[in-house]
Known about the structure:
Elements: E1 3-7, H1 12-23, E2 27-34, H2 40-54, E3 58-63, H3 66-70, H4 99-114, E4 118-120, H5 136-148, E5 157-159, H6 167-176, H7 199-211
Parallel strand pairs: 1-2, 1-4, 2-3, 4-5
Helix pairs in contact: 1-6, 6-7
Amino acid sequence: MKKALCIMSGGMDSTLVAYIMRSRGYEIVALHFNYGQRTVTKELSCFRAICEDLGVSEKYEIDLDFFKAIGASALTDHTIEVPTEGIEPGVPITYVPFRNGIFLSIATAIAEKEGCSAIAIGVVEEDSSGYPDCREHFIQTFQKAANLGTKETTEITIEMPLVHLQKSQIVQEALILNVPLHLTWSCYKSEDAACGVCDSCRLRLRGFERAGAIDPIVYV
């Protein structure tokens, strides 16, 4: 069976991507990163629960503590407040410098080892928070570099099935595929009940509202 390495944060977008890849006939190899983010414990527990629901037999949990040393992001530097005043234009302070580039580099190594023909990532360009490493052109360019830097027998496609969707469309697709959205987590600030006011919560709640659906997770 063909295999896909799915980068899974425990959030709604990357979880949907994993279910999409399974629906396309791929065996899922799951990859999760603990990089010092504020909700690291919650995201890891969500990842494990989602893997169990998917029936994943091979999963990787990678610790990347150096992101805290780099800082420059409200997600990894706890002295920087997570914005709660609404989504601002431009690149927000919750952007983690080159995070997806680093994630994809590690994913490429694991995919080559596992014999995966695809890496799947839940980047969203049109309805994202303005992160530069979520752009389609960046991912396409990275794919070329990944194939240049691996064995001649390795040929990897980086799949990003959500890149041109809006959050409401993501919610709709997740409902169609019976994705366990109650197991996912999007909040940047809290691990017990979602804050409802950070950029990620606002995007998620707006997506459910526009899709005419109710978000099953608990909010403050």
